[in-house]
Amino acid sequence: MAGLLAAAMGTVHAQSGAVSASADLPAGVVNAQRAWQNWTLNCQGCHRPDGTGSAGTAPSLAGTVSKFLSVPGGREYLGRVPGVATSPLSSADLAELMNWIFWRFDKEHMPADFTPFTADEIGRLRANPLRLEASQMRTALLQKADESAAAAIAR
Questions:
Q1: Is 90 helix (H, G, I), strand (E, B) or coil?
Q2: Number of domains in the chain
Q3: Domain interval for residue 85
Q4: Is 10 contained in some domain?
Q5: In a domain, 121, yes or no
Q6: pLDDT by residue for the chain (155 residues), tens digit each?
Q7: How many helices (H) and strands (E) does the chain have?
Q8: Helix, strand or coil for residue 79?
């Protein structure tokens, strides 16, 4: 029975994007399985299993979330958005989850000099949560990120 359950879980993990213990771990992720489980239980209900979000309620993370790391204020924004700041997860689990999210949903835009979030940093940022201003900040930060990327290509 345990073997059947393990086989079923392996199939679910393969289909969901979860990683095995033998996979290379992204920076700041000690346990990718735990990060995936935290995503599944706390985030994917709104952001969807593939990170594409839900129109009007939870923005897409797929192909965009790492862009915030390249603009002033972006990293702080990510630690203060309502879903992060009010999460029931510990700051340590949340930091690991955030680092996993960049790797899982937007490797393409991760800066080469990426510094993983830490529990201390998440704890400090989530103490000052964003509310109604989160959506406007997101739009402005993504616009800056896109302008910066376009300027870099033009060089």
A1: coil
A2: 1
A3: 32-154
A4: no
A5: yes
A6: 444 334 333 433 444 455 444 458 899 999 999 999 999 999 999 999 999 999 888 999 999 999 999 999 999 999 999 999 999 999 999 999 999 999 999 999 999 999 999 999 999 999 999 999 999 999 999 999 999 888 888 88
A7: 8, 0
A8: helix
